[in-house]
Amino acid sequence: MPGEREGYLVRNPNAVLSEMSPGLRRFHDAHLEGILRGIRNSWPAQIDRSFFQRISGQVALFDQDTAAMTEAILLPTQQYLDRGGKRLRPLLVCLILESYGADPGACELLLGAIECMEDSSIMMDDYIDGSELRRGGPCAHRLHGFPGANVAACTGFAIAEAVFFNNELNLKQDLVLRLLNALSWETIQMAFGQIEELYWTESNVNCVTVDQYLQETVSRCAFLTFRGPLRYAGLIAGAPTEDISVLERIGENLLVGYHLRGDNLDMAPDSEAWGKVAGEDITTGRRTLLINYLLQYASDADRAELIRILNSRAADEASKGRVYDMVVKYGGFAYSRRLAEEYNELTKQDVNRLQISDAQKQLLCEMSDFATVRRKA
């Protein structure tokens, strides 16, 4: 039922965590309870008058509205949160806060907001893509319909933003303004990146270069994936100005490596923990790096067949298998892995430029290895 919170407190054993280095796994385990508390405290158990007072300072509801709003707005996001996940973003925030001498325990609302933003955004991705599964369960639009998923995702994102707009972290005003300015800029970048991807997919664009794809990926995903959490954590912890720009660049490079790994996993999952339908990028006609690579390097005959499959939004296993065979034939997986490893190295080079301890640098490098090379889901 909406309002029951036990799901937040279940550790949800996840096979992919076994891929973490011992040091990173210890760090994860040490901070997991704080992350879960942050999610619980930043995400309301129910919508009532006190909730609206907190969010907007106004109350303009009939009492009977609150139960319906709890069901429609909170339940879909809560279901995503309850399924768990890697929680890499709040984990990164903990790591950066500690690296610059700040206490993650004093910023648990930030940890929760970052994870709630992420889950709201993947809900948007799911209904845009028409996906079936997320984290092993039905996507929100499959359970609640497209309008319901859209309202829940947008509202969930707004609720997370309220942590910053209402200054619930009790930060200095000039710092709050910097965070809000960054949030506005990032949201614009994310919107235009999403529009670009939708245009390529809906218009069946077949001439996207690798560089264009990578730029679109950074615009659409860098904020919520890693750049935003790293920037916010650095600003709140008082990192040196020169380190903030390095953290932002780390976020972008780490995102690219992570995303390229995800493209490979979508077409060829190597773990039952993937939790999604394999080959959805083919079924939706999405122009991923692997698809764009084939469009650029496949023979005329294979390219024509690939375009036919993509344009028909084929969901049958034979069509998906045919695209998989083409990726293998032209070395697409190997190319994508090499590129992910290059971005992993760029990330590590920047990590070593940060003014933090060697131990913290080592953990960040291990996080990069996990996200771009070792991750299975």
Major β-sheet annotation: 2 strands, antiparallel
Structure classification: mainly alpha
Q: What CATH architecture of the largest domain would you give? A: Orthogonal Bundle
Q: How many structural domains are formed by the residues?
A: 2
Determine the N-to-C terminus distance.
28 Å
Number of strands: 2
Q: What is the mean predicted local confidence, pLDDT?
A: 87
Order of strands across the main sheet: 1-2
List low-confidence stretches.
Answer: 1-13
Overall form: globular
| Strand content range | under 5%
Instruction: Kindly state the percentage of residues in helix.
Output: over 70%
CATH fold topology of the largest domain: Farnesyl Diphosphate Synthase
By CATH's scheme, which homologous superfamily of the largest domain applies? Farnesyl Diphosphate Synthase
Count helical runs.
16
CATH C-level category of the largest domain: Mainly Alpha
The radius of gyration is: 21 Å
Which H/E pattern describes the elements? Answer: HHHHHHEEHHHHHHHHHH
What is the topology?
Elements: H1 6-9, H2 22-42, H3 49-56, H4 63-82, H5 88-99, H6 108-129, E1 133-134, E2 137-138, H7 140-165, H8 173-202, H9 210-237, H10 241-267, H11 280-283, H12 289-297, H13 300-311, H14 317-329, H15 332-351, H16 358-374
Antiparallel strand pairs: 1-2
Helix pairs in contact: 2-5, 2-6, 4-7, 5-6, 5-9, 5-16, 6-7, 8-9, 9-10, 10-15, 10-16, 15-16
